[in-house]
Please model this.
Amino acid sequence: MHFHLRLWKQDSIASKGRFVEIDAQEIPSECSFLEMLDIVNNRFIAEGQEPIAFESDCREGICGTCSMVINGVPQGPGRGAACQVYMRKFQNGQTITVEPYRVDAFPIVKDLVVNRSAYDRIIRSGGFISEHTGGAPDASTSLIPKPVADAAMDAAACIGCGACAAACPNSSPMLFVGAKVTHLGLLPQGQAERKSRARNMVRTIQEEGFGNCSNYYACEAVCPANVPASVIAMLNREYIRGEVSEAVGAID
Ligand code: FES
Model:
């Protein structure tokens, strides 16, 4: 197969970016999107040209690092991360537009690579538990109703890829934050920080310059982990609970 790439090149956040036209030739149909970029990069390296900068780690849809926008869709078409997009999904000879996430809070590092450390800072502000839960046998002695365990598990599927913020017209990361708040807030181990967790994480969202949720549901539509938008409702409830608790002096 062969493809015509319209790919965003940018040296750094300070420099001006531009689309460049690249031919991707002799691409096996079973290639993933990232393997197609590898083939293009191998040619560039052999020709003495600078390769395209993009991020990846697991290439199994688990780590969330392969952030890019393919034909206008964060993490590409279909369900799954960009590393799970396969070239047989495109038509032979098709023009494919590839660009980085367009989110102010994710500054462009180079080409398709953006700095998503704002998500790390949001997690550091509340997305953790401080309880020692013991080993696995101890943890499994805490009985949790199946519907609650299932809802916590669905939320825990979030891979923190940033597609929710990239798809949102407000660049809102509330699907990501809601997933963490729901996952921890439903489980017994997460109760210790429950009153402060959402309050602190929402404050960090604002400090990092992300926008707020306006219920567009674009996040849910592109989420490669199928995290439901209902986690945002849970986040809102937990946030109000945290603010009220602080107002009445129930937490610092
Ligand atoms: S490289 Fe890990 S999710 Fe794509």
